[in-house]
Amino acid sequence: MKNKIYTILFAAVVCFASCNLDKESPDSIPFDKAFSDMGSIEALERGAYSRLRTAYSISSMILPDLQADYVHAISGFSNTYGNVYQWTFSQDDGDIATVWNDLYGGIAFYNFIIEGIDSKLGFEPTASERTALNNIQGRMYLMRALSYSLLAERFCGDYDAATAKNEYSGVPLVTTYDSSKKPARASLYDVYDKILKDIEQAKQLLADQNGSPNSTTLNLDCVLALEARVLLQTDNYPEALKKANDLIGKQTYTLIDSEEELREMWTYDRSPETIFQFYASKTETAYQWGYYFYNEYNNGTDNKQYTMYPDYIPAQGCVDRYDAADWRRTVYFLDCTTDAPVDGRFIVAIIKGQSMFARNLTVISKYPGNPDLRTTSAWNYYNTFKPFRLAEMYLIAAEAAVLSGGDAETPLNELRMHRGLPKLPAVTLADVQEERYREMMMEGTRLTDLKRWGLGMTRGKAQEGEASKTGGNPWSYIDFVTEIGSDISKPKGDYMFVWPIPASEIFANQQLGGQQNPGWVR
């Protein structure tokens, strides 16, 4: 019976893997051949990457920022992710359950590969094959550590050494491939302890796998980047500073030098700053990260004008936090204005709920879609996600330095200069917080940052301006956003900063009974 379960799960997972090599299709490999040769194991690894990419979904990475203070929903929006945006979600929310299920589905598969390489090999590997197997296993440890770090960020409170060992403060730890095991929640201390142990395993097994910019293969530099992030999350500021500076000091990656290079990073998915990004092609498509912010009514095919059709637009308070000299102001945002054409076309935006054309409205353009991933001239909004970037290492170094009495000016000012901004004479925690807000917009970190800093959340002033039925005279002054959720303000420590354990998971795993996060209905 257990072999039957393994076979079903194996087939379900590896069918996601894309084979751009001349190998047997991975979903055609039966279970008893899973570890019979290197080709089969490599197919499993492709399945693992596919699992990880699924876990880094729009629900997982955009939802926390929609819940926070970056955006307002436009009048008449589609209500996609509306419950989270409005803070009305519950333990029955399907999007949140999807994040949980995708992360644990991936963990099960990484466990399967780790154990298989340890004990199920059907051949005697050569020396070079053993090295390759070590590397694959190292990437599985890294994927598992990444997954547990995301689970801790989404479904647990902020790490506090005084409470981290409290029972049920973490998430269930599943470290073996056994579908019959349904553990209770571990402590948050134990979860992060396991993450750091997996990081150490990955370091050893990937010691010979140095990275390079824009890598689509997990490598040693990714391990170091995750380690710095986790050490910051667990308040180990001296070590977080050291690890971030170690990676910066390798000089494998460099900060961009111009607005054009910044635009290339987010449009064409290539940059000397990118430590790791997911693979994407015209056939192995990425997610449409910008669809709900940068959707164009005609998908870019109207030769006369661009008509933006977003569900969410940046809060005016968000836009105002970017100085005019900041390169991110014109890369992360697009101003819809009838004052001057862009590429020979004027830009307008539709206010869905009022069937009106707005002028002087700003939309988020951080994920405009990579033209190299289009199959026709129409926009398809595909960009690949970048879990590790050099800019984050500078922000980690600056924050850790501020909180440990180190040199925060050097890393923060280095990043600022490479974003078109002047140096600050002195750097405070508030300065780091502002820079992180600007840099990491819509990368899934905002809710975690607010928890770590012990801050509340207030959606700032909304955009408003002129609109007309025709896109021409007469223009009238209107509110661009829906009133629903527009004025939300939450104090620090509000229980909804921590997502609930999905009710479906509690029903399936009776060990979780009575272990729901504080504030949520049990």
Notes on the structure:
It is built from 19 helices and 13 strands. The chain has 522 residues and is α+β, with helices and mostly antiparallel strands. The chain has 3 domains: 34-70 and 82-209 and 495-521, Serine Threonine Protein Phosphatase 5, Tetratricopeptide repeat; 218-278 and 390-455, Serine Threonine Protein Phosphatase 5, Tetratricopeptide repeat (Alpha Horseshoe); 296-365 and 462-490, no CATH class. The longest helix has 29 residues, at 127-155. The relative contact order is 0.13. This is SusD family protein.
The third-level CATH topology of the largest domain is Serine Threonine Protein Phosphatase 5, Tetratricopeptide repeat
- Sheet with the most strands? 5 strands, mixed
Task: Give the strand content.
Answer: 5-15%
Instruction: Indicate the mean pLDDT.
Output: 91
Q: What's the SSE blueprint?
A:
Blueprint: H1 2-14, H2 38-55, H3 58-61, H4 63-67, E1 71-73, H5 82-85, H6 94-119, H7 127-155, H8 188-205, H9 220-233, H10 237-249, H11 259-268, E2 274-276, H12 291-294, E3 305-308, E4 312-314, H13 316-319, H14 327-331, E5 333-336, E6 346-351, E7 356-359, E8 361-364, E9 388-389, H15 390-404, H16 409-417, H17 429-439, H18 446-453, E10 457-458, E11 464-468, E12 476-479, E13 489-490, H19 503-508
Parallel strand pairs: 3-6
Antiparallel strand pairs: 1-4, 2-9, 5-8, 6-7, 7-11, 10-13, 11-12
Helix pairs in contact: 2-6, 2-7, 6-7, 7-8, 7-9, 8-9, 9-10, 9-15, 10-15, 15-16, 15-17
